[in-house]
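WARN retry 2 of 3 for item q-0093 after timeout on previous attempt; input resubmitted unchanged.
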Amino acid sequence: MEKKSPEHHLLTTSRVQDEISDIVAKRRSFEMSLAQGRGTKATDYLRYIEYERRLEKLRKARAARIQRGEMEGRLLLTEGRNRESAAKTAKKSLSDHSILAHITQLHRLSVRRFPESLELWDAFIAHSLSQASPLLVSRTLTSAIAMHPTETRYWIMASQWESDGDRKGMGGGNTEGARRLCMRALRFLKGRNNAQADQEAVWREWIRVEVAFVERLRERWHVLGIGKGKNGGEEIVRVADKGKQASGSEDEEGAEEQDDEVEEEIALPGDEVDDSQLKQEVDQKALSGQEALLDGAIVRVVLDNLLKASSHSIESYDFVLSVLRPLASPLRLALLAHVYASLRANILPSTPSYPAAVHILATRHLYDVAYVPPKKKKNSKKRTADEMGAAAGLEQDPFAIQVEGEKLVDAIGKACDEYWTVLKKLKADKKGKGKERDQASTSPQAQQLWEGFSGWLEEMAEQTDEEDLLEYLSANLESALSSAPSSAFLSLVKLRNLLHTGAATPSVRNHLDRMVKQYGTDRTPPAQREQVWVANLETVASLLGEAGDGDDALEKAFVQATRTLPYSAKVWDLYADFAERKSGRSPADVEAWYEKSIRRSLLTDALPPAGFDSTFVLYAHVTPRELLPRRFVHYLATTSPSDFQPKVDHLLASAPTLSLSFLSSILNPSGPALETTSSSSNINSRTFRRKIHERIVAHPDAGVEEWLAYAEELVRAGEASKSQEVVQRARGQLLAGSGGEGAVRQFDAGWAHACSTME
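OK item q-0093 returned
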């Protein structure tokens, strides 16, 4: 506080003397909270900083008003040139920077005391970026990375600062520094678990840095009138020693700023041996001449190393395409061609990723379009790297079709031609003898190629409305289906194509019978078998519905499907829909069907087999023994609320192994089942709910939440004594369970919170 006495004196000149005593008291209170030792929290520093920030805002407003009044008075006393010089004269006082310096010091103290707090580091970085001090920004980012070397966003922020600077014009111009930061970030992230997304973010940033450098260089040469060609003038860019970048158009002041920033670059543990080879490649490309630079030679080196680091996986190629396709640079198509050449060279026909690679290469014309720079308005400022959005990939979907009209037709035609070229080559390979011919015709890669081609044709046909293009796609699809070896997937595609083209009902029924007979058995993987049966049931229901009869035939189909797939929640859900709406079936018949089906779902074979993942998203994590009881309770609550409680009691008695989540759902049925008004009904409802709660807490999976819900409901119902009994039982049961004393402490804390909210 003694250090701030000159500042307090100067604040009186800003006409805040009435608040000085309050300011002193507030600051003393904040500093006392920071001096508590172990009781100090990170939020104490943030509150103090926020107070100082608002104080500085108030001081600026008061000082500006006073200065404006003094300036008007001074201008009235001066004339001519003296008036202009008087208007430019503005004295600065200690208070103009003392509060900001105090805020900076508070930020330094906060991260020194709580170096693990990302919130404090974020606040410090935001404050440093708001100040006119590039050195402060560089030092703050350096310290943040040193304390949190695996926090990817700090590396990216530092790289953006070195490469582009901020919107105020501070920082930027140090491409070599940004490049080195990206290299080091990748080294620190290498080998970490679940670091794939972080590494991709750093690679994306590195590509952005290199492309932005090329575009700045291109624009500079355009302004200087330097043409591109062999030996077309002396080289403009040279890579100097560590941290230094020479440029013929940089002034001395900018070079001094850059040197200051380089001194503050991160000195992280470990040498740079791991990066030496990559750095030499980049430096060699940077020195190879202006043509190589403008053609993206350095960017190609980065892309090659990205793909090499990922062992040329198909996922890495997808990631690179997601970066390059929306790239706001004339380099876009050239870099994409380089990636496609790498894809052809490194993913061979014998590899499992070959079908995906063929699809990428065949359909590339749909997504790859040349970059068209936006037209500049007159008197507009030069575009910055941020405005270019190089490698950002945020405004354009890299996997959305970018062509239309005739270009779309041409792109689809090229894709079909490339697919047929590959598939005909496979057919030619089938002309071998014996095992070689059979292996070529039934290899997984060949099957995936046919399925990928057919699936893509079907998808494109669904997206187009043009008759000629639709006819072309349908013809190719029919040719592919007739030439491809049979599979469950292709049978489903053929079924959808028959329905889409309006084929005759006998043709559809014949195909359904063959498909179910061939792929609806145990020889087909469970997920595909489920797709086959669901398609069969939905198609038969649609065809019989159009005919107006056939409930018995559909009933037989459902019975056969549930025997084949007793673990498919999707099949049981379709069966339940049919059972509820079947003509001539009374509510009692539906209830009997539900009870019978629930007992069937509790058998052992109704559990999903290992490795079964339903392709129907809504049913991916639902089992029949969870789905059917929930549907039954919903049906009872909406159709017969007066008999809801006894019928649920009967269900619980006949099916004692129901899940905990289902038992909890009974307490909140979607219907009028428990919403009664008479006092006797309320008593019955409370008794019923207590019975359900007892069933819940007796479940082997019951824990703290279930006991708390039971005790809290008793208190709200006015049964405090019974609630205390439940609390004592809960403590005993939880202590004897696997949670032990920890579960008891958790229950006591939750119970104390529940009691405080009910007071």
